[in-house]
Amino acid sequence: MMRTGPARRRGGVLLEVLVAIAIFVGAALAVMACVDRAAGALERTRGMQRAADLARSAMSQLEAGLASVVTLNGPVPAFEGSDGPGVPYSGGASGDGESGWELEVQTEPSEFGSLTKVTITAVRRRQESGSVVYSYTLTQLVRLGGRAGASAGAVGR
Fold first, then answer.
1. Phi then psi dihedrals of residue 116, to 5 deg
2. Residue 94 has pLDDT above 80, yes or no
3. Between the CA of residue 62 and those of 35, 66, 152, 153, what are the distances in Å?
4. pTM of the shown model
5. Assigned domain for 156 exists
């Protein structure tokens, strides 16, 4: 004989509550996955923006004559920026005065007599594997000090 009445209704309510909780948990997990992907995309965008800023800054220093190909090439020193005192702008210096970023500067002569083709690549690598995390390359024609062909083709290493 089947029961009808209050006991059967209580079992049905319990089942409905369990189904509702399962749906809520599934929806919460989906939202958390979306938030995690968005946070990862934001971090990648910030890294690419820093790489672009470093490359543009180096190109500006080169154009203004404040730095040379030799002085720009290599590790980027850490500095205190808008992130606050003692916090490197690069977001996590290794503690040895380096920011974790590296600039690779190459020059080559151009078909325009007084201009040199300058390529600056800002790179951040993983410390453990050395694989590239972020990279941005900027190429521009620049009038370097002295004769344009004198330093063209030099790689400041």
1. -120, 140
2. no
3. 41, 6, 13, 15
4. 0.66
5. no
